Amino acid sequence: MKRINEIVEKRNLKETVLQFGEGNFLRAFVDWMIDLSNEKYSYPGSVVIVQPIPNGLADLINEQDGIYTLSMRGNSPEGKKIENRVIKSVSRAINPYETFEDYKAFVESEDLKYVISNTTEAGITYLKEDLKEDEVQDSFPAKVAQLLYFRYKKFDGAKEKGLVFFPVELIDNNGYYLEKYVNKHIENWGLEKEFKDWVKESCHFTSTLVDRIVTGRPSADEAEEFSKENDYEDKLLVFSELFNLWVIEGDKEKAKDFAFEDLPCNVIWTDNVDPYKKRKVRILNGGHTSTVPAAVIHGYDIVRDFMEDEIFDTYLNDLIDEEVIPTIDLKKEDLIKFKEEVALRFNNPYVDHKLLSITLNSISKFNARCLPSIVDYYNNTGKAPKHFAFSLAALIRFYEIEKNEEGYFGKDQNGKSYPVQDDEKLLEFFSEKAKSENYIDEVLESDIWEYDLEKLGDFKDLVKKYYKEIKTRSIRDVMEEI
Asked: What's the pLDDT at 120?
């Protein structure tokens, strides 16, 4: 069987994008968008992938001439859907640990305009290190400071040779922190003030929010089935969901080629990413956190189980419509559309998302994802949110655990054990409190919550009421009556 690059012709465009990271996410997200834009507009141009650590996929990417397939799978308003696309936006890959001169030559290229990165959350940190002349730096911000210095010297500080950065690492204000640590390296290396001014005036660091579930490489069986169906071999095949969102906080005029106009890329340029971050955390993440403990207690195994249950589905819809959306400062129609997209994603027939994997560290998740909505709802209305009161009652019931030699375990309403994973001190706290007759009171009165629940009217009383009902009745029946 032929390889994909033996039957697909490369698209030859100027190499304008440097991408730190060859993993599944960037190839299923940004590189897909660039491919769509290249096909329609012939810009922004080709991507050169730089391997951010010594071991990676650079050799395999070059063996396939940068060509690979993205298979997007999920629920659409019309039903189940699979959309395959051959991606031709990547021209080549460089391993700077083996071919530093090739890397430096591209960094100093006339055509380079943009830098994309996904070096994991740990990538954008400051680690003190000396400036290197003939090998790549260790940390990612140091790599950026180094490549900018090479470029500054190559073009004698020409203002038009600055770069635009699009970090997609999953930390808040990723562009701000990348620029901050780059400048810290510049200061630590004692480089000239003119260079620091050039970085400030000629380069642009955006902060971004990304959203797409990339399930990654297929299993051996899935890859074999794909090859038979499509009559070619692709060792870089990657699977993702259909949904995608890229929110970019920055000056759109500095990166016109990254507008992706009239394409299904869902790219939003804004001067403030925070409302979109709040939308994602409160609706998507908060939707999980407010329903999953109850679903586990009922005996469900995967997200799709409770999404196909009319009672759970109605509860989640009402919680978001009545108690979450009013707390977010964006257009209501946009929030409702996002909620509908979230429902399709939760019910993805191609992803078996285990409920227990979502319950990891649920106390901190509730504090971050749900409690802010509860506080805002109460402050706006003067009323305690009843759906969230139920969700907290279910969460506390979920953490009603005992310790044994294998860990900490709770029991669902069918008597089946389930493991609970969290900070050890929290697990010890709950396992001790579970022995008390006043379990619910002691948990609600503890300092594990990041807001004083006494300030929320009768919220605590509602939580106690629902907890007692969950203890004596089917959790599904309690949910139905809310």
From this structure: 81
Residue 11 Ramachandran class (φ > 0 left, ψ -120 to 50 alpha, else beta): beta
Q: What does each C-alpha distance from 262 to 37, 226, 267, 370 come to in angstroms?
A: 9, 30, 10, 35
- Which tokens is 58 given? 């650079």
pTM for the whole structure = 0.92
Q: What is the pLDDT of residues 220-229, one digit of tens each?
A: 899 999 999 9
**Pairing relationship of beta strands 245-249 and 46-50 according to DSSP bridges:** unpaired
Nearest in space to 162 (alpha carbons), one of 151, 177, 150: 151
Sign of the torsion formed by the C-alpha atoms of 95, 99, 100 and 102 = negative
Strand order in the sheet with 267-270: 207-211, 245-249, 267-270
**Model confidence pLDDT, tens digit, residues 265-299:** 999 999 999 999 999 999 999 999 999 999 999 99
**Sign of the CA dihedral 315, 364, 241, 354?**
negative
Terminal CA-to-CA distance of the chain, rounded, Å? Answer: 58
**Cβ atoms of 369 and 286 closer than 8 Å:** yes
Q: What amino acid is encoded at 353 in this protein?
A: H
Query: Strands across the sheet with 114-117, in order?
Result: 90-94, 46-50, 15-20, 114-117, 164-167, 204-205
- Can you tell me the distance from the alpha carbon of 268 to that of 472, in angstroms, rounded to the nearest whole number? 48
Q: What contacts 285, CB < 8 A, 6 or more positions away?
A: 365, 369
